């Protein structure tokens, strides 16, 4: 049963790619045209235009960005509670000519983590950073790369813990929660991109960890007269997150999120 639901949600995530969605609508329009169903051709053509305009001009992106990020927009302005463990989620690895480094989306997370850590340490209180992520590399994990980057920013190696098995947000939550439950910190700060926070928090709660959201960055689209690739790309990111959030809620209702092989 779980495999069936995995396939269904994967299908919706594929449809969250505007290019795929537009191609699918065009194929449907051609089929209707061959069958000489003029009314259906007109409707599908209108839908295609609405999709291109709604996504490419930034309208849908504005709505999804607001839904995903609005409640976290002032989180970085408050004073942190202590003692604390900061969990920072990886954002991927870039391999350029054999040189591996954190993906560009990861650097804002590293900066936000360092800022939060320094705020806690200013009060002369202990603070531990848990870096979570294996990433897509078979050589160096995200956790190792994050650790090196954080140390370069002045954070002591003794204050950094690695979780280097997780390959997705579900596993970030699963493996990190096992470490956190042993440490029993008073507060757990979850550092990741604003558009990713809602789903990440839900998954950590699934494993018994109530995280304090700490957004590292935000994304948004721009309202434009003509459709552009920027709006298409960022809207796609956010639509996939919305599908992922729906998947978490649905799987939690069925008890499927406790599965070892579940992928996010």
From TrEMBL:
The chain crosses the membrane at residues 12-33, 40-60. Keywords: Membrane, Transmembrane, Transmembrane helix. Residues 85-244 form the DUF218 domain. Pfam families: DUF218. This is YdcF family protein. It comes from Flavobacterium cerinum.
